[in-house]
Design a protein that fits this description.
Structural class: alpha+beta
Distance between the termini: 125 Å
Mean pLDDT: 78
CATH class of the largest domain: Mainly Alpha
Helix content: 40-55%
Order of helices and strands: HHHHHEEEEEEHEEH
Radius of gyration: 32 Å
Strand order of the largest sheet: 4-3-2-1-5
Number of helices: 7
Shape: elongated
Number of strands: 8
CATH topology of the largest domain: Helix Hairpins
CATH architecture of the largest domain: Orthogonal Bundle
Number of domains: 3
Length: about 300
């Protein structure tokens, strides 16, 4: 064996055996770098959007007469939350796109004809689509909810399945913790509606029963004065947005009348606000001599005696 034969064999081996693995490794390295760069770029965009967001303090919006302005300012506070949600969605799409293209390039380097494979994959996708319709619906619903900002982490929502606080919004499911501490995993495709109680503002509503003969004008005056005291109490800056007020007569019963009290409150604070409102209104009514009626029951025995 002469040196020319050895050189020819080495060239053939290098061209046939090392060139392809080298290109495959290069494709993988480029995919890793592209994934890292896209991740850093998305994080930078999210950080930039978050830093530009104007943070509005709830205390600055108390007792505002312009409900639309208040709602707009509070929705601006969701810019950071929305940016993180969109960043997560963009990162998932970028990773899937980069590695799908890399897989196709690697198969081409291995001599696999990608054209027929794509055609067969299309047919297989149609077949699998019928069996994975719910999975596809979950992903599409997750993308839609994220893009439209229907809900976010920390929101109090009623999705028709459970009422609670959102822990995580993924593409396939939404994780919600109810007010008993139970963690629910709700598939996005099964959510019929979303009642979000954390966007803009909401109401704390309580109903109070009083004696049938109670002076409603006095009741209104007592409740509204207590509402003004609450409005000027700085300890409630993060809860109430305007003075709680007498809303009107809600129900008339044989033994009592029921009046309603309403207050505009900060998102996520409607339950705490309602509890505090009950305490303050009850104390104010008690001090004014307006008491909740006692339910009386008559017990009659078989002989008609009471």
């Amino acid at each position: 064996m002469d040196w020319d034969s050895i050189a020819d064999a080495y060239d053939s081996f290098s061209a046939g055996s090392w060139d392809v693995p080298f290109r495959i490794v290069l494709i993988i390295i480029i995919a890793l770098v592209a994934t890292k760069v896209s991740t850093m770029a998305i994080r930078r965009l999210v950080a930039k959007a978050t830093s530009r967001a104007t943070k509005i303090h709830v205390a600055d919006l108390r007792n505002s007469n312009d409900s639309k302005e208040v709602s707009d300012h509070l929705l601006e506070n969701r810019v950071s939350q929305r940016a993180h949600a969109l960043g997560t969605l963009g990162h998932s799409i970028a990773v899937i796109g980069i590695w799908s293209a890399s897989a196709m390039m690697i198969m081409a380097e291995l001599g696999i004809n990608v054209g027929p494979l794509l055609a067969s994959a299309g047919i297989l996708g149609v077949i699998l689509g019928f069996g994975a319709q719910t999975l596809v619906a979950d992903y599409l619903a997750g993308i839609s909810m994220t893009l439209e900002d229907q809900l976010g982490v920390g929101d109090v929502v009623d999705c028709g399945v459970v009422l609670g606080t959102v822990d995580e919004v993924a593409l396939r499911y939404t994780r919600i913790r109810d007010f008993y501490g139970v963690l629910w995993y709700v598939r996005n495709g099964t959510i019929p509606f979303i009642a979000n109680q954390s966007q803009g503002w909401t109401y704390a509503i309580i109903d109070v029963a009083l004696n049938y003969n109670a002076d409603l004008a006095q009741v209104r005056d007592v409740i509204n004065k207590e509402g003004q005291r609450i409005a000027h109490d700085s300890s409630y800056d993060t809860i109430f947005m305007d003075p709680p007020a007498y809303a009107g007569l809600e129900e008339v019963r044989g033994d009592a009348v029921v009046v309603r009290v309403m207050a505009k409150v900060v998102p996520d604070q409607q339950f705490i606000g309602a509890r505090l409102l009950r305490e303050r209104v009850k104390s104010a009514l008690d001090n004014a001599g307006l008491h909740i009626p006692l339910t009386q029951m008559q017990i009659v025995d078989g002989r008609g005696a009471q």
